[in-house]
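Look over what follows to help learners.
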Amino acid sequence: MNFADWMSAVQNRTEDALAHWLPPADTQPARLHDAMRYAVLGGGKRIRPLLCHAAGAALGALPTDLDRAACAVELIHAYSLVHDDLPCMDDDKLRRGKPTVHVEYDEATALLVGDALQSLAFQVLINQPVDNLHDSHIAGQVDSPGLMGLPYCQRRLSMLLLLAQAAGSRGMAGGQAIDLAAVGQTLALEELELMHIHKTGALIRAAVLLGAHCGNADADTQTTLSHFANRIGLLFQVVDDILDTEASTATLGKTAGKDAAQNKPTYVSLLGITRAKALAAELRDEALAALAPLGDRAERLGGLTRYIVERRF
């Protein structure tokens, strides 16, 4: 399967898995469940699930296990977008080419959507059963060896801890707090990097390492993937800042130029567009170099690295 077909296959199976895990829109409270599905389904590049599947596949993970990890991290990402768009945060009206959740529904519903999606992410990851879940392979895997010989249940607990840390005050939520405090400020490059290691990079790193936890990764492989994930997390943000400057709202599916309008520090505002693009190329090369110990097993991760740099939306 070529890279484009593989991407499409993972995106499609992630969409199906998310649709399965999300409560039906007609289940009470119906308005909340309808808004949850609105926030998650039918849009997005699914970069984090793609990274999760690519890392896990390199280490022999089962696709069905990876579906769970990929859905969990994508649900956390979706919740963060719903909350980021609220008037008390970035006050955005457009996301993935359609009205944001608080515009389509209302602010209170949007707040509850984010809360419920965050909770659902951990439900999916801890392997709580839901109606009609086709996951019979789990029953035969409960006591099978996992990451570094850990039993399945212990491995799942380590994955819960990883995701919780990535989403919390020392990860994504903390990065958002730094971002809000930085409006109107001029940050040094190191300060900007610290902000995005938390805000964007923490969840991207979690996606990669959750995939690794679904397979058989020793300590050295985890270190390799962690270094790769740190580089690709920053790379994603640099490219995002470039696109926010150069792409249109119609192309992005969200309001273009919003960071500049709100006087937020970005890689483009700090470095200029030419140096920001040079930094993206440097981070791409560092990420690809980090994958060298994995050899051909890292082919999909390398393809995603190039895709992130070359994407146009």
Q: What stands out?
A: The mean pLDDT is 89. The first strand starts at residue 94 and ends at 95. Residues 219-246 form the longest helix (28 residues).
